[in-house]
Amino acid sequence: MELNDSVKAYISNTPNQTKASLSVGKAFPDTAGTLGGFLQCPQTRKIYLISCAHVLGMEAGTKVFNPGPYEGKKTKKIGNVRLSILPNLDGETCNPRKYSQYNPYSDYGLDVAVAELNADDYSLRTSHPSNSVEHVRMISSMSLHDKVLFHGKVSGKTEAKIRYLCLWDEILIDDEPYCFRDIFVLSSRQPQYLNTALCSPGDSGSWVISDFEDLLSWDGMLFAGDGSHAYCCFAEYILEACKTSDYFRYGLSLVT
């Protein structure tokens, strides 16, 4: 799948973001990851920023800062976590054949945190790379080797392709093993022998973007990397988790 002119323009014309503009994190312990993008409640019109749970924290109410305090720079509180999800450390073998009642719409494939953005900081969205995203791509519309890109706090704009879909894997997050179920994996578009690390520590939270039916589409969010591969959770599952949570009665959608 070739990128159309709108995606090429996104790649070339999106202003280079400073680490500060993309950086978010919590204070105790201090972290710094990537502010992936924004969602909105269709009823209240409140705006929420999206990153990873291991970046923003697991507790509702945790304060979110920009840039992330781990960077050791002057930082500002921009919001509070409202929903945070990581797979349970249940000690079971990470094997789909052991889960006959597996529900793909559960939270097993997510490392995500949703934080309510302070009204005074809504301007953060206007120059953010995700501001041009128009569509959420469903998993059923994704294919192996689709061309995508992400914009990480450390790596900047990075072109990639989908290497694996709907994968189960045990992945280390902060040195702890988590069984992620139904995720997708990115690799470089370059030949294998040219591959270097696709993403860097600090890129966690980056939104994965593609061209789908002439629309800039949100496919998912990068949460970990392993050399030439980057692990991502699906946007469809993120929205489903928001819809089924107690806090977001009306669900969340792309900001309009």
Number of helical segments? 4
Please provide the ordered H/E string of secondary-structure elements: HHEEEEHEEEEEEEEEEHE
Radius of gyration: 17 Å
Instruction: Outline the low-pLDDT stretches.
Output: none
User: What's the helical proportion of residues?
Assistant: 10-25%
Mean pLDDT: 89
Largest sheet: 6 strands, antiparallel
| Beta strand % | 35-45%
Strand count: 15
Principal-axes shape call: globular
- Terminal Cα span: 27 Å
The spatial strand order of the largest sheet comes to: 5-6-7-4-3-15
Structural class: mainly beta
Structural commentary:
- The chain is mainly β and 256 residues long.
- It is built from four helices and 15 strands.
- The strands form three sheets. A six-stranded antiparallel beta sheet has the order 5-6-7-4-3-15.
- β3 (37-40) and β4 (47-51) form a beta hairpin.
- The chain starts with a helix and ends with a strand.
